[in-house]
Amino acid sequence: MKLKKIMSAILAAAMLTATMAACGGDGNSSAAPSSSTDGNSATNTSAPAESGSGVSAEDLSTQEEYTVKIMYFGDAKTEDTNEVAAKLSELTKAKYNTVIEMVRVGFGSYKDQANLALNSGEKLDVISSFGFVPATMMSQNQILPLNDYLDQYAPDTKAAISDLDWQCVTINGNITGVPYNIEKASAFGLLMVKDVVDAMGIDWESIKTLKDAEPIFEKVKAEHPEMYMLIADFGDIRRPLRIDSLCDDSCLGVLEDALTTEVDPKVVNLFETASYVDWINTMYDFNQKGYMQPDAASSTESANSLLGAGKAFSFITNIKPGIEAEWVRNCGKEVYIAPLVEEYSTSANIGLRWCIANNSEKPERAMQVINEMYMNPDFSNIFIYGIEGKHWKFVDEEQGIVGYADGVEAGSTGYSNLAWGAANEQISYVFEGDDPDLWKKLGEFNANAPASVAKGFVWDNADVINEVTSCTNVLNKYVKALQSGALNPETDLGKFNQELRDAGLDTIIQDKQSKLDAWMAENK
Amino acid sequence: MAKVSAVRPVKEKKHFVRYLPLYLMMVPGIAYIIINNYIPMTGIVVAFKQYNTRLGLYNSPNIGLKNFEFLFRTKDALLITRNTLLYNLAFIVIGTLFAIAVAVLLNEIKIKKAQQVYQTIVLVPFLISIVIVSYLVNAFLATDTGFVNNSILGAMGKEPVSWYASPQYWPFILILVQVWKVFGYNSIIYFSVLVGIDQGYYEAAVIDGANRWKQFLHVTLPGLKPTIITLTLMSIGRIFYSDFGLFYQVPMNSGALMDVTNTIDTFVYRSMMQLNNVGMASAAGVYQSLVGFVLVLTANFVVRKLDSENALF
After folding, report:
1. Considering only alpha carbons, which residue of chain A is nearest residue B251?
2. B31 and A300: CB-CB below 8 Å?
3. What CATH homologous superfamily does B48-310 map to?
4. Could you count the other beta carbons within 10 Å of the beta carbon of residue B292?
5. What mean pLDDT is predicted for residues A213-238?
6. Domain tally for chain A?
7. Share of chain A above pLDDT 90, in %
8. Does residue A368 share a domain with residue A334?
9. Same structural domain, A331 and A470
10. Which of A35, A101, A294, B159 would disulfide-bridge B144, Cβ 3.0–4.6 Å?
11. Which of A348, A336, A335 is nearest to A457 (CA)?
């Protein structure tokens, strides 16, 4: 009997050490990059002085060393990412005595992995909100409100972003994150592969609405039966509609026309509005005629790969300055884009943001790094393009144009560059093929887009979270299939709306309406 | 064993030393079960909390049964329970019949070499990863390139079916896939029992004038009975669990199919990963564990009443 007890005690002890060792391992790896960069810090102290923005005179390089772990999306090899992080650390080490650790996760699994990291309590400081609903992140305390940190640790960033934009990322008085300085307006268009259009002499500019594409699809389909006429991106199809979702990605209750001039805009069920019904009828019609990519709703292929492989003719894309060049880079094909919805802006356009994880041990240090990401061109360039000579080289140093390094291309690079994936692409170099004035044009695009009456209003779903969860389950069931034309709107749209109502949609709409009314009364 | 040690405590030590190698062999398995199954059990508390990342697992505020209340107020609770139970019932009944049939057929083959070849062949589906199975199924069912639409329905002059948007077919497809995947494994178990049945019984049956069917009913089936009961009992214990891969990967996570493919396991995954509703996901998990536990006890109790020798405990 005694022996058995001893055995079990030993067993328990062994297990405990095993679990502890596992936890300890994590800690070590996060500290590892610091030692490799220590040597460089002394020689590089002058570098950050170029950042130019008036950081307070106080010397922050003497603060205690801390590692800031950044998590964001995009394909990259671990070794390359570590190298880039080490390079970034040179800058932050000299300025803040902060070491950067970076983790990049592919688009497909980013949300899941980031969510696990946030929920499991693993060390994490700076995280991109890509794929998340920031209001939910805040209400579940996955992230910290930045209010207190911004003024003290990132005053330049605070000043660089407009008050209206800050309002769009503020929920119940809590600033959820620093918004990306990317396109801040929505516009949609129909992208078509250029070589096919040219070869067949198609008048693509005649397309003003999605319906206009029908005769073109018919012609191209006859000539190219091997191509899908219209495709989805990982099963998603963008809605070419001018709605204001009121900062709710699920669109449970929207303003049908974002640019309505009514003083008391009405929140309605998107899935019953005339413009939505009209659109999905068109999609169903396309699907019946064989223009849609089959099984689009459950597709696990990206639009990039389908277009690149020559299997697709068109795709509904968002539009912004430089979008054509971006597609060329992504799929290797030149494209034409016929605008379907002109640019407009809503609160939801200030969507993507950099947040500070609740697990951060020193949020103020994370804030300093975000400030660097937003304000320091050197930092931003390395962050976006990687290491000079290894990942990129200058094509035209004068104009600040870069391209892939020798022997590297889009498919083989160990560190894929996504200018829009950084905090502030507009302070970075322009990539080869893009307009040298791209950032200027983007700034104009943002400034000129007409704004929704409700811009600045951010709906908080906390009061109806259960209804939202139920409705989301219903959306999961129907939305992709309906929007890819796989379901017949005549029979299924009614069922869909009934299920939404059963799940509490009306309560959600009421909640939204009353909060919007209150906001309008206060702000307009 | 307990009895032996109580009567002769002196021999306890000798006994332990003698079986030490066996105990040592048990250690990795026990360690695995404790790490994988017992330690995470403390997480059950989350089901009774409003999970808050800042406060952590154990310090989040208690909200009693609120998570359960909400879970059962949605239509999903009924749906996922129904799907999980009915699919598993179908798997148990059809799977067992099919496995026994194959085992009996295997046993009829008299050429040793051929028997081994067939044994290997029927086992192959069991060894294929479910993700690969899902693409095999996709090769059959894809709307444009699939075998069924092109080579079967096309040849018959019928309209192609958009399989991944047509929920009415999926109960059959899933049962077919599951039975195809696991029948080999169960057949081998039944077959090994069949091999052990004394040929004398069959000879005696033949002398008594029994035909093949009678031999099966009165010799083979009684010989298989303990194995059938044990395997079925174990399946019933897991009747509230579903093969996540089968219900998530094989239908390609298609939303239109959710009414017939959503089971407790996929529901927990979706609430957790997509809706980030940690509390509700845990509530569903606890519900599954409790009902599963009760079912094992009940099934064992029934068997013990009917045939005490074959009960698990």
Report:
1. A298
2. no
3. MetI-like (1.10.3720.10)
4. 18
5. 93
6. 2
7. 64
8. no
9. yes
10. A294
11. A348
For residue range A470-487, list pLDDT tens digits in order: 888 889 889 999 999 999
* Residue spans per domain, chain B: 48-310
- Residue A226 and residue A290 in contact, taking contact as beta carbons nearer than 8 Å: no
Tell me which residue range forms the domain holding A364: 37-44+53-182+351-384
Residues A240 and A99 in one domain: no
Q: Domain check: are A142 and A237 in the same one? A: no
| φ and ψ at residue A264, rounded to 5 degrees | -120, 80
Number of A:B CB contacts under 8 A? 108
Q: Which of B84, B87, B85, B83 is nearest to B178 (CA)?
A: B87
Assess B35–A contact: CB distance below 8 Å, yes or no: yes
Query: Taking CB atoms and an 8 Å limit, are B255 and A476 in contact across chains?
Result: yes
pLDDT, tens digit, for every residue of A502-512?
A: 888 999 999 99
**Do A148 and A228 reside in the same domain of the chain?**
no
ipTM: 0.70
Phi-psi region of A84 (alpha: psi -120 to 50; beta: other; left: phi over 0): alpha
pLDDT of residue A189: 95
Q: Measure the CA dihedral A363/A369/A370/A374, to 10°.
A: 160
Do A178 and A190 lie in one domain? The reply is no
Q: Could you tell me if A321 and A236 are in contact, meaning their C-beta atoms sit under 8 angstroms apart? A: no
pTM: predicted TM-score of the whole model, two decimal places: 0.76
DSSP A64: P
Rounded to whole angstroms, the Cα distance separating A468 from A320 reads: 31
Nearest CB to B255: which of A111, A121, A480?
A480
Per mean pLDDT, which range of A116-120, A156-160, A251-255 is the poorest?
Answer: A116-120
**Is B274 an interface residue toward A (CB < 8 Å)?**
yes
Chain B positions touching A142 (Cβ under 8 A) are: 53
Is residue A327 assigned to a domain?
yes
Region B63-71: mean pLDDT is: 82
Contact criterion met (CB < 8 Å) for A140 and B74: no
Residue written as token pair 């089901």: B47
Nearest CB to A469; choose among B30, B39, B280: B280
- Write down the pLDDT at residue A29: 36
Which of A111, A359, A466 lies at the smallest CB-CB distance from B70?
A: A466
Q: Band of the pLDDT at B8, cuts 50, 70, 90? A: low
Three-state DSSP state, A71: strand
Confidence at residue A47, expressed as pLDDT on a 0 to 100 scale = 37
Query: For residue A488, is it within any domain?
Result: yes
Which pLDDT tens digit goes with each residue over A270-292?
A: 999 999 999 999 999 999 999 99
Q: Cβ of B275 under 8 Å from any chain A Cβ?
A: yes
Query: A39 burial class (0-12, 13-18, 19+ CB within 10 angstroms)?
Result: exposed
Task: State the smallest CA–CA distance between residue B236 and chain A in angstroms.
Answer: 29
Name the residue facing B35 among A15, A300, A481 (closest C-beta). A15
Q: CB A112 to CB B254 under 8 A?
A: no
Tell me: the pLDDT tens digits for A359-390? 899 999 999 999 999 999 999 999 999 999 99
State pLDDT tens for residues B206-221.
Answer: 999 888 889 999 999 9
Q: Examine residue A361 and state whether it is found in any structural domain, yes or no.
A: yes
